[in-house]
Amino acid sequence: MNRSANVLIVGLLALGGTSVTYWVNRSNAPQIAAEHSSLDSRKLLDVIAADRYDNQPLESRLVLADTSLRHSTLLGGYRATRSGQTVAVLLRSQSEGYTGKLELLIAIDASGKLLGVKSLEQRETPGLGGAIGEWPNAWLEVFTGKSRSEPTDAGWALKKDQGQFDQIAGATITSRAAINAIHDALRYFDEHRAALLENER
Amino acid sequence: MKRPATLTHSLMLVPLLGTTATLSAALGMILMLGVVTGAFAVCMAPLRKRLKGASTLLTCLLLAATLTSCADTLAQRWFLPWHQASAIYTGLIALQCIVLEYTGFFSRPAASRVKDCVVYGGLMVSLGGLREIFGHGTLGRGLSAHWQGLVIFPEGLHLLTLVPGAFVLLGLLLAARQAWTRRNSVIKETHHS
């Protein structure tokens, strides 16, 4: 009697436990997937403040033409909009760093001013050029607010190259690559402004 | 009696060291531990008398696994950033429940259980807070999406953010406690004599 009651309890618990687990997993799966994608996009998109846009920029990809720039290549772009108006264009740019590819996400607002730069991928020397991979990044913050014409073309370089920017200590090539990539992206934005800002229909 | 208690303690040490890198991580773990262990205690209360021998272990196992996996899923839904950092420790909660059951924790008087829980929770919170202040230089980061936390130091001691650092800090806390109790007992003795 006691034994069969025990077996019954264990059996019921096994059945109940598996079905509850299955149900909880199943009913929460969509929300968990949504959380994952919003966390991913927040990680990628923290170059611009979350309250500036109200769309899902990662789902609003830009079709880019002539992506080979002077010093870098554009891998893709996203559009951040707020009530249908484009507020920022995000360009993924890839250039050649000191030890490998340097991938930057460059955010430019509708007036052509730089909103922020974040490095997505880099293999620079740890402790020197590797500092570009840190986030938040004081060196990359210097570029915020700059645009293609402010400073002038000559100013868009390291102080060592008679420009106006400091470099990351001990990482001239990395710094030069980043500055050139940012300048390229701003120039690209300037030249393709109409196509990039074209609002979604 | 000594051995099982040691087993419980050493198991409790894992979340204590592993999930207290920041205050928010520690609070998340306390919430998970509290909810799962509480639900386990409630569900086991009516079953305990009716079960005997091997089926008790099986029941505990099923119950703890169900509760832990449900809690884990819900944590993913509501506290995904926390879950990504501390997920490997949630599975241990199930084991913790079974060990607590077998060392007779749930049959002890309520007052002593509450006291143990409060002491453990307090230790988690203080370790989490101290590690965040001295390891990251902030306090309360990650508690809310709109608040970046108090910035206390511009830079922290990296060692404290790692598990060995937690071990060192726990050792220091224990040493401080020992020094404190010894000093008090010395004062008492001198008063008596």
TrEMBL record, chain A:
GO MF, one example: FMN binding
SMART domains associated with the record: FMN_bind (SM00900)
EC class name: translocase
Domain FMN-binding: 97-189
Lineage of producing organism: Bacteria, Pseudomonadati, Pseudomonadota, Gammaproteobacteria, Pseudomonadales
Family: Belongs to the RnfG family.
Keywords assigned: Cell inner membrane, Cell membrane, Electron transport, Flavoprotein, FMN, Membrane, Phosphoprotein, Translocase, Transmembrane, Transmembrane helix, Transport
Designated name of the protein: Ion-translocating oxidoreductase complex subunit G
EC number: 7.-.-.-
GO biological process, one term: electron transport chain
Function (record text): Part of a membrane-bound complex that couples electron transfer with translocation of ions across the membrane.
Annotated localization: Cell inner membrane
Membrane topology: Single-pass membrane protein
Location of FMN phosphoryl threonine modifications: 172
GO cellular component: plasma membrane
Xref: InterPro entries: FMN-bd, Ion_transpt_RnfG/RsxG
Subunit structure, as described in the record: The complex is composed of six subunits: RnfA, RnfB, RnfC, RnfD, RnfE and RnfG.
Needed co-factor(s): FMN
Pfam families on file: FMN_bind
UniProtKB/TrEMBL annotation, chain B:
Positions of transmembrane segments: 20-44, 56-75, 87-105, 117-137, 157-176
Organism per entry: Pseudomonas khorasanensis
UniProt-listed InterPro entries: NqrDE/RnfAE
Coiled-coil segments on the chain, per record: none
The protein, known as: NADH:quinone oxidoreductase
Location(s) in or outside the cell: Endomembrane system
Membrane topology: Multi-pass membrane protein
Domain of life according to the entry: Bacteria
